[in-house]
């Protein structure tokens, strides 16, 4: 059982890995993609996971269960925290695949180890490389997409570029969650001509949840 008393996930193996990752979460002062630390190269943070928080993951799990989701995608996987919630949901729905994208090889390996430890390795496909390439073909329509990648600087954000790639592959009635609130991403997803309705949730300082309606 989870140490979060109302967690919807009841599998102790999954909850143990989530608890370990959450307990190991560390972010030294001045380190991170939005800080003034001297590197904005994601490879410089190969030992650090920048992941969603459990309340976001629990919402992902519930929404995917409600959708009966069987194929979902995420950018970026990092060490696999979000992947655990997705994979638990598709497994509990009867089977499916999480397609993850992660550019840092060490994090790809960490995510795979964490999924194996949780007993979920068979439900995830982690693609190593640039999400603008790895997510271009998801192998069929998807029910849910998480966009939580590295905030870029200058030009369009990676979130904006990735949503333009994956939005056509998302089923009507499917969801997109965004964690970093990149302004150009929000401009895209809130544009009524894009086919989404959207709201900001009070999770982790602001989480954008969007539903594809056409």
Give an overview in words.
The protein has 214 residues and is α/β, with parallel strands linked by helices. A 7-stranded mixed sheet has the order 3-2-1-4-5-7-6, sandwiched between helices. It is built from 7 helices and 7 strands; from the N terminus they run ααβαβαβαβαβαββ.
SSE layout and pairings?
Elements: H1 12-24, H2 54-67, E1 71-75, H3 81-92, E2 97-102, H4 105-117, E3 124-128, H5 131-134, E4 142-147, H6 158-166, E5 170-178, H7 183-189, E6 196-201, E7 207-212
Parallel strand pairs: 1-2, 1-4, 2-3, 4-5
Antiparallel strand pairs: 5-7, 6-7
Average pLDDT figure: 90
**CA-atom Rg in angstroms:** 16 Å
Structural class: alpha/beta
Strand content: 15-25%
Main sheet: strand order: 3-2-1-4-5-7-6
Basic shape: globular
| Helical proportion, percent range | 25-40%
The helix count comes to: 7
> What is the tally of beta strands?
7
Order of helices and strands: HHEHEHEHEHEHEE
The main sheet comes to: 7 strands, mixed
C-alpha end-to-end distance: 39 Å
Unreliable runs? none
